[in-house]
Amino acid sequence: MFVGTITFDLLLGDVHSLKQKRAVVRPVVAELRRRFDVAAAEVGHQDLHRRAEVGVAVVAGDSRQCIDVLDAVEQHVADRPEIELLSTRRRIHNDEDEE
């Protein structure tokens, strides 16, 4: 079993409040869940209105499948016009990894 994770550091466009931030971030997270069948959530920068950190995880039987899903998720986020992708962090975990 493999678990792939990716975290996105995002800069939001014309957002001036936390309420406006939620209106941008929630639909992105919901679409990632629905479209790619992954776990996704806002995981950081909750107190900043123009920044967001979104984490995504996928479980698969082989690492290639994890990589393919994470590639598609990253491309989808990068293509969103209302957000700027500042950076990503990606890891693939194997159930045989030492703790």
Automatic annotation (TrEMBL):
PANTHER family given in the database record: DUF503 DOMAIN-CONTAINING PROTEIN, HYPOTHETICAL CYTOSOLIC PROTEIN
Protein name: DUF503 domain-containing protein
Matching Pfam families: DUF503 (PF04456)
InterPro entries documented for this protein: DUF503 (IPR007546), TT1725-like_sf (IPR036746)
Species this chain originates from: Jiangella anatolica
Domain of life assignment: Bacteria
